[in-house]
Amino acid sequence: MAEENHETKLPQQQFAPESTFFPPRTTLKTTWPELVGLPAEEAERKIKEEMPEALIQVVPPDCLVTMEFIESRVRLYVDSSGKIVNPPIIG
């Protein structure tokens, strides 16, 4: 009985354009210092008006965050009352 060497062909994975993973930015703005002192919900609304593709992440006091840079992410550092304490910045 002869062994046949059958090559298993896996389907090629199709990747969508980069815009699926990181949508093109609609603003050149990278920071929002004018939002310091506002409630997180209001700051998020204002950022989304200028950058609809933004992924907003609210960071409570004393919370650890990862250091990787994500172009579409904006972190909102808040105090115990939910108000912005640092200028929101892309990353």
Task: Write up what this structure looks like.
With 91 residues, this protein is of the alpha+beta class. It has a domain at 32-90: Trypsin Inhibitor V, subunit A (Trypsin Inhibitor V, Chain A, 2-Layer Sandwich), CATH 3.30.10. The protein has two helices and three strands. The chain has helices at 18-21, 40-50; strands spanning 55-59, 73-77, 89-90. The protein has a three-stranded mixed β-sheet with strand order 1-2-3, with helices on one face. Mean pLDDT is 83; it is low at 13-20.
The fraction of residues assigned to DSSP E strands is 5-15%
- Form type: globular
Q: How many beta-strand segments?
A: 3
Q: Specify Rg, calculated over alpha carbons.
A: 21 Å
Overview in brief:
By secondary structure, the protein is an alpha+beta fold.
Keywords:
91 residues; alpha+beta; Trypsin Inhibitor V, Chain A; three-stranded mixed beta sheet; 2 helices
Helices, strands, pairings?
Blueprint: H1 18-21, H2 40-50, E1 55-59, E2 73-77, E3 89-90
Parallel strand pairs: 1-2
Antiparallel strand pairs: 2-3
